[in-house]
Specification:
Strand order of the largest sheet: 5-6-7-8-3-12-13-14
Number of domains: 3
Radius of gyration: 30 Å
Distance between the termini: 19 Å
Helix content: 40-55%
Keywords: Membrane, Transmembrane, Transmembrane helix
Number of helices: 14
Transmembrane segments: 267-290, 296-313
Largest sheet: 8 strands, antiparallel
């Protein structure tokens, strides 16, 4: 199965979080994801102005394991695998503080903190998207109670490793996880409080005290532990907190990120075909030389002219054939291959390719999803909308995934970020002066916003399943405005 979540990452970047989820019964899972990007002609993005090098400079891919999924209430109320593994690692460290035990303890802290973060996020999303009005207060109360339970259970484990055999520097790993969890709790509860106060003020009035008590207790705990907190008196500058929170996030999630070694996918084939091109051009030059030599003899003017012309044409033929083979390779093969591994164990690979294509090479289902208006179709008769095809294929081994961890790892996330800075170079000004009139016929000068659209149609193939997704990006010279999902 392939799952996709799209969001605005920053002012000029969009992010597609693509989940490749394997089936338990399959030894090897094969995924194909084809993305057609429809670009307005006015942006002047075409094969001459936007080649493979620029495209791969604008796209960034981070591959990581999918965080094991646990309900927050299960973490709070039952003896789940994360707490079992955590306590086992803590006790092993305290009794035999070897390098192996230290590494396992650190790894379990990171994994537990990542699991808690995902559980908090999923439950928060469930509450704000809940359509059952009467359950909202219950869900929020449970959310707050479960947070207290989970954080208390985790913090009580510190006593196991607060012993003479565990070095203070090693104990710091626990505090890194604790501080990260505290930050995540604060941010999610604050976001929930903000949502309820805006969208459901009646529920907020009932729940306000419980949320504020939790936030107050968490703040006092952070002060007690000397963790960095948000300075609410300086609303525009919290550089230290943001920097620290970012470093903690990278540290905690570092064990989930996979090693992805990228290399040219067609390098050997390219060299073989280019050698063939050189050989064929040499055959042409040799035939011309032998023919003129046989007819006019050695050291004659016609033979000399034939040698010069054949040499000139030989180089041109070689370059033309190189160009032809390169074009065919680009359209039939993938550009790059990425070996995906963790802890020196390969778990799969991915391939990617980029090409500009014409309308007649786009599947009918994709064109229907694109949904061009009649005006755009009329415009396309004069100047074509440019179409980029980005192809990705991923293969994962189920057995290799199972051997990574004691936790059930269902697959990987490929976090793809696409920067649109190259697309804004030839845009018009974001504000356009226009005239309108009131009911009396008086002219009124106002300003309108000039925007452009990128349409993404994504085809996902897995086993016998085939599905399509469409996203529309609205942006202008000031950056990305919004993402629409169809």
């Amino acid at each position: 199965m392939i799952e996709i979540q799209a969001k605005i990452h920053d002012k000029f970047s969009i992010e597609f979080k693509v989940g490749f989820i394997t089936r338990k019964r399959l030894a090897i899972s094969d995924f194909v994801m084809n993305t057609w990007i429809f670009v307005p002609h006015s942006l002047d993005i075409n094969p001459m102005t936007y080649d493979k090098t620029r495209f791969y400079r604008d796209i960034k891919s981070n591959v990581r394991l999918i965080t094991p999924v646990y309900l927050l209430r299960d973490l709070a109320t039952t003896d789940t695998l994360p707490f079992q593994e955590l306590e086992k690692a803590f006790r092993q460290l305290s009794s035999t503080p070897t390098r192996t035990a230290t590494a396992e303890y650190e790894s379990q802290v990171k994994m537990f903190a990542s699991i808690v973060k995902s559980a908090l996020r999923d439950e928060y999303t469930h509450i704000i998207n809940s359509t059952i009005e009467e359950d909202r207060c219950y869900l929020t109360r449970e959310y707050l109670a479960n947070i207290r339970q989970v954080t208390t259970k985790f913090r009580n484990l510190r006593k196991i490793i607060n012993v003479s055999t565990v070095h203070a520097n090693t104990l710091e790993y626990f505090h890194f996880g604790d501080e990260f969890i505290s930050n995540v709790v604060e941010q999610h509860v604050n976001k929930l409080q903000d949502f309820l106060s805006r969208e459901h003020p009646k529920d907020y009035f009932v729940l306000k005290k419980s949320m504020q008590e939790l936030l107050k207790d968490e703040l006092h705990y952070k002060w007690e532990k000397n963790y960095i907190t948000v300075n609410t008196e300086n609303k525009s500058n919290n550089q230290e907190f943001i920097s620290r929170a970012g470093m903690l996030k990278k540290y905690i999630e570092s064990d989930l990120y996979l090693i992805a070694r990228k290399k040219r996918n067609t390098f050997l084939l390219e060299q073989i075909l280019f050698s063939i091109a050189a050989g064929m051009s040499m055959v042409f030059a040799t035939i011309v030389s032998f023919s003129f030599q046989q007819k006019y003899g050695n050291f004659t003017l016609p033979f000399f002219i034939a040698l010069v012309i054949s040499y000139m044409l030989k180089d041109r033929i070689k370059e033309l054939m190189r160009f032809y083979f390169a074009h065919k390779l680009g359209s039939k093969f993938y550009d790059n291959k990425v070996q995906i591994s963790i802890k020196s164990q390969q778990i799969g690979w991915s391939k990617e390719g980029f090409d500009f294509i014409s309308d007649n090479k786009v599947p009918r289902e994709v064109m229907e999803l694109r949904g061009r208006s009649s005006l755009l179709e009329a415009e396309n008769r004069r100047v074509d909308e440019k179409i980029i095809l980005y192809r990705k294929r991923v293969q994962l081994g189920r057995k290799q995934l199972l051997n990574i961890s004691a936790y059930p790892i269902p697959g990987i996330h490929d976090i793809i970020r696409f920067n649109v800075s190259e697309f804004i170079r030839k845009m018009d000004n974001p504000e356009v002066p226009i005239f309108g009139n009131d009911a009396e016929g008086n002219s009124i000068r106002v300003h309108g916003e000039k925007t452009y659209y990128l349409n993404f149609v994504i085809q996902c193939q897995y086993e016998e399943q085939l599905e399509y997704k469409r996203y529309r990006i609205m942006f202008n010279r000031l950056g990305i405005k919004k993402i629409e999902t169809f």
